Amino acid sequence: MANPGYGKRAAPDQLPRTDRDFAHLPPREAAIAAYIDRLPDGADISVKTLAKTLPYGQCALRTALNNLTRAGHLRRGREHLADSASPRWITRTWFSRTARDDDWWAAFTRGDVPQEPPEPRAGPTRSRAYILLAALGRTTPALSLSHRDCADLAPLLTEWFARGATDEHVLQSLTGGLPTPVHSPAALVRTRLTTKLPPEPVREIPRPPLRVLECAKCGAPGRPEALPGGTCGPCRGEAEPRRPAAPVASSTVRTRVADIRAAMADRRQGSRT
Questions:
Q1: Residues in the chain with pLDDT < 50?
Q2: Bond from prior residue into 181 cis (ω within 30 degrees of 0)
Q3: Are 233 and 226 in contact (CB under 8 A)?
C-alpha cells in the first residue's frame, strides 16, 4: 500500500467486472491492467513497486502504463480536496476498468461525471413501505390493512423514507395514541401519513474536488483538452505554440518617452552652441 492519501484511485461508475474487460489490449497491457484492477484503493501502483511483483522490468512497465493511459484506463494528475484545511495538492493516479474517452476524463476533472445507465436487475416484488404497512396488523391488530390498502398507501410511506424517516419513527407515528375503536384503519393511516410527514432534509451540495491532469510522459500539468490520450503536445511531437509577448507596463512607456524627449532637447541645445 502507498502512503495514506496516495496510490490507486478507482474511477466512479465502472461497469461490472467480466473476463473480457481488457480483451482489446495487447497481452502485456491486459495482464497489467487486470492486476491493477484487482488491487484495492490506495495500493502502490508505481513502476518500481509493480516491477517487484510482475514479471516485467521498469522500462516495460512504464511503456505499458502509458499505453493504458492512451487506451483510456489510466490518468495521472493532482487533486485538492474540497473543504480540506491544507493548501497542498495531492498526487493522484486514477484507474478505470471501463475504458473512458477524453471527454469523460475532462468531465471527471471538472467533477461532472455523467452517470452510466444502470443495468436492469430483478428487484423485490414488494417495497419496503409495503412490507412495513402489511406488518402493522401483527403488532397493532387495530391497524390491520388489506393488500389493496398497503399498495395504495405505500407511495405515501415511501416519501417518509426518502426524507430520512426510520422504521421506528414510522411505527411510532402510526400507532401512538390510537382512538378506540379504530373504525377505518386505512383512512387513519392515510391521514397520519399525510399530516405527520417529516420535513424535507436540508442537503448541502458537496463541492467537487479540484483536479488537474498531468502528461503521462513528462508529468507537465495541463487542461484535459491539451492532453488527448493523456499526453501533451510536445510529447506527441507537436511544436509548442508561440506565446505572445507580455504587454509593456504604462510606467515603462512614460519613462522611455521622457528619455527620448530629454535626448532630443540635449541635441537642440548642442546645435545652438
A1: 117-123
A2: yes
A3: yes
